[in-house]
Amino acid sequence: MRWLFVLVGAAILAAVVAVVVVLPPDRPSKPVARQTSPSPTSTFPTPQVSEFTDPCGTFDTGESAPYAVTGYWVTPTSNPCTWRKQLQEIHNVGGDTVIRIGYGLQYRPVDDDGVILTKDGERDSLYKDCEEDGLTCHDAAVRDLRKANPGNRVARTYVYRTDEAFGDGLFRCAEMEHRVVSGRRVYYRILAPMDGSDDATCDFTKPRPYDLIVVAGAVKNAQGEFKDSLSELLDLGDQFGIRIFPALPLAPRQPDNQTRANPQHIPTLTTLTRRILQDYGVRFAGRASLGGVYQPFEVQMGATLAKNPTLQVYAGQHDIVEQELPGKPILISPYLDARKRVGFGQTPKQVAAAFKALALTGVGIIAPQDSRGTGKVGLFWPDERDDEVDERLRPVVGESTYGTAYHGSTRDYYREMALVREELLKGGRQVDLWANVEAFEPAGDPPCAAQGSRGKTDKKRLDQAITMAGRYVQKIVSYMWSDFMTCGSPSLESEVTKDWARPIAVDAIRRARDVQDGIEVRGYNLKGGTVTVEWESGARDLDVAAVGWLDEDPLEELPEGMQTAWVPFDWAQVPPGAWVKVGVRLPSGQETTERLHVRVTS
Q1: Pairing of strands 243-245, 504-510
Q2: Alpha-carbon distance values, 391 to 370, 399, 491 (Å)
Q3: Each residue of 346-382: b (16+ CB within 10 Å) or e?
Q4: Is the pLDDT of residue 13 over 50?
Q5: Are 397 and 457 found together in one domain?
Q6: What is the pLDDT of residue 1?
Q7: pLDDT attached to residue 43
Q8: C-alpha–C-alpha distance, residues 29 and 156, integer Å
Q9: Across residues 144-168, what is the average pLDDT?
């Protein structure tokens, strides 16, 4: 399992660009690799044992059904046995990466009794038990500040919830900051200047206003201990050979635009982020299972993204990560919207410009949501623009053709982002492009999640999404394991486990080998396969082992498990401009459910 180290040169990029247009035969037979600065991390943890037993049961750490998707989002859980079961299931289907959903920093009012209120003005039950010396945590903080100087005050109060149990690295000024154990929960009190400077001198003798951040942390377990959820996840990562991406705090949102971070509160978010990452740096900096950190504030990729204050959040948190967790990247997962009938739908070029703006904030991994699950982008080929959209998309775009509904296909967007990424790499800017394929449908009966209408999809559709991501990306991940992969009967997980060995072709190009014309196919599970080529007036079946060759060790910039097959093929027999459908069939009878559509231009 690999991270990106070696980047492809211009020859392979040119091949990638020609996903739907087959290139003329004057391309080099081998891509040229070039050296750049390495990606932030390099090694994946190796499973410690093939099997282990703990109070939750016995767990197998092997892979039995390695699928093309190698990373998944999971939701927090209070049951440690659920974590173990999920990571075992994820690793079983080839997962080596787990990304955790997180929580948001929230600005909150306080009543005259010093009790923290909800946004609706009610007393918040989660924080009512935070008390010191008979005072609320808010009033106790005011008391301690005024002891240092009567002119000190708490100007703003924020809350943040988590199931983590932080170490002393969370605190900077011991006289003002500490844990508060109340009942079954531990709270953390942080006091810092409002400008985000987080003064390290801890001089409270000069009167000034302060931000109070009350963190509601872990709850005691059955043994009366405060267990840190991230420590437990990292331990499981070591057991299963999985990298964990814990979530950073989300920024408070603008009241009139919930898709944008509120600049007024970014300094406080900076303080909280710095404290959490300082604590991680003390406790986890050397852990191979800590893959990086995930910033869950989603933005739409579009032409005006560079003006979105959320990018200040990404840039500021990147700087802190570099200081406190060197070598660990920030992962973000923005979304696409290709719909033509909404004013905010964006073209592939506009999304590519947004990719550049995001990369310039310093984030190390951009994993755009393919947005097929939400129906905001379709999966289709250029010669299918006049086809009716998948009926599962109709709740979002109505009865329409793909060309009428969307500016482009998922494939168009990943292709344009890959081109921008290559430009950035040439300029010395290191960033990885991952594909986040959405493992759900816009609606389902019953829905899979506790909230919303999203329903179960099937492996055929997920294979199609992987096909459309092509070889433009370095890794394929999926939102998400919790709910969507385990929903329904049969579940998507069980479909993948049963059908994981089916070939998936992601790209086909015209490529000569020595003096022989041919076709190069990249994809998954190609070994032992036959490349099938079909056009309006003809068809060919070409056994890779008999007439071609197979490379099972892909270049470093390609996703884990991708293979390259080449077979001889005389393109002169295909009329210029004709669309050709390319697939792969195995001796078992399994064949690609989504064939590639390519075209000869000359």
Answers
A1: unpaired
A2: 18, 8, 21
A3: bbbbbbbbbbbbbbebbbbbbbbbbbbbbbbbbbbbb
A4: no
A5: yes
A6: 38
A7: 60
A8: 63
A9: 97
Tokens, residue 590: 């399994």
The domain tally of the chain equals 3
**Structure tokens belonging to residue 18:** 């020609």
Interval 511-522: pLDDT, tens? 999 999 999 999
pLDDT band at 328 (very low <50, low <70, confident <90, very high): very high
Task: Indicate the residue type of 584.
Answer: V
Asked whether the bond before 446 is cis by omega within 30 degrees of 0, the reply is yes
Strand pairing category for 185-193 and 178-182: antiparallel
The C-alpha angle 572, 573, 579, rounded to 5 degrees, equals 95
First to last CA, the chain: 39
For 38-60, the pLDDT digits (tens) are: 344 446 677 766 778 888 888 88
For position 570, which CATH number holds? 2.60.40.10
Q: Measure the CA–CA gap between 387 and 408, rounded to whole angstroms.
A: 13
Contact 253, 262 (CB under 8 A): yes
Could you give the 3-state DSSP secondary structure of residue 210?
strand
Degrees, nearest 5: CA angle 288-293-296: 150
Range with lowest mean pLDDT among 71-85, 501-515, 519-533:
71-85
The three state secondary structure string of 506-565 is EEEEECCECCECEEEEEEECCCCCEEEEEECCEEEEEEHHHHCEEECCCCCCCCCCEEEE
Model confidence band, residue 553 (pLDDT cutoffs 50, 70, 90)? confident
Residue 35 pLDDT class (50, 70, 90 cuts): very low
The Cα 295–Cα 67 span in angstroms is 26
Start-end of H helices in 99-228: 137-148
CB 206 within 8 A of CB 149: yes
Q: Does 537 lie in the same domain as 484?
A: no
**CA separation, residue 197 to residues 162, 272, 275 (Å):** 24, 11, 12
Residues 133 and 206 placed together within one structural domain of the fold: yes
- Which H or E run contains 584? strand 579-585
Question: What's the average model confidence in pLDDT over 234-239?
Answer: 94
Q: Which domain holds residue 596?
A: 504-600
| 92 and 189 housed in the same domain | no
190-193-197-203 Cα dihedral, nearest 10 degrees: -90
Extract the tokens encoding 168: 């002393």
Check whether residue 350 and residue 494 sit in a common domain. Answer: yes
Which class for 216: exposed (0-12), middle (13-18), buried (19 or more C-beta within 10 A)? Answer: buried
Residue 264 domain flag: no
Q: Tell which of 479, 499, 519 closes a domain.
A: 499
d(CA 279, CA 561): 36
Instruction: Indicate the SS3 state at residue 368.
Output: coil
Task: List, for residues 479-491, the tens digit of each pLDDT value.
Answer: 999 889 999 999 9
CB 497 within 8 A of CB 92: yes
